[in-house]
Amino acid sequence: MRFLPASGRAPAGHTRAPADIAPRLRLHFGARSAQLLEQEGAAVASPENHQVVLGLMERQACTPPFSCKVGDVRAPPTPAAASNPQSTRSGGAVSLAAAQGKEQEVPCTLSHALTVFLTHPSSLLIIGALGGLLAWRAQYPLPTAVDAAVAACVAAGWCLQEWAVHALLLHSSFDWLGRRIHVGHHQRPYFHVSIDDPPIVLGFMAASLAAFWTGFGGGPLALTAAATYYACGLTYEFTHYIVHTRYLPTSRLGRRVRMHHLLHHTRSEAHWLAFTVPEVDQLFGTLPPDPAAIRMSDMARASLKAGRSGGL
User: Fold this and answer.
1) In this protein, which residues make up the domain named Fatty acid hydroxylase (predicted)?
2) Cα distance between residue 167 and residue 173, in whole Å
């Protein structure tokens, strides 16, 4: 499916979009985002941008062996196996098929997505550690209002941490390993299995537990804080993973988070930096009131190019 530029004249090889495209865009993205996509015809590479977004969101039947239900989307052809095993790594995320130098199939159904996530070593590591912390906390008296306050503060801090790490470290102006890994994540096609490597997860878990244990002097509050942090980490890992699959969330919140992150990848990596709570971008001035006013970055163009060459 191709889209016309603003002139209304189709370039060679392009066909006119169906008449019902605008209502479908508004249904999936809301009026403002739909307007962005309709106006994108005036920008360079806009047909590809339209194609990627529609491929992400359109509700169509999955290819065998998957059966589609509400919330599933059509799976484009699976790209050929990578010749370089390292290319299957998705910028701080690892595919279980990477050891064989294969591209892991990106889920298009919720059941498949859950199976992949819940069998990934990083997910199992977080779930196991979280269970251990909760069992340890159960050895102390029941949680109090102080525990609730600590948990709320840790959860709020997590949301701010997401933005800070993303903006100041992963998209930093200085070169370091984390930035290089994250650039690789952006250079991948938008659709890929994206779950942080176990060493990264273990590092965050160990550092946070040490910090909370030191800060609270051990005891139940330290365990409450650490358990909350681990739960936030698990929520982040799953949410970031699911928006990079071909499964379309059915809830309004899920679609909003997905569109927010989609714009970060396909429009500008300098904006839409928050994740679990998109409103955090408003606090730091990185949530443009009009996405159409933001110029498509070179990194976003590279991501779209990778999506076209890799079967989206």
Assistant:
1) 154-286
2) 10
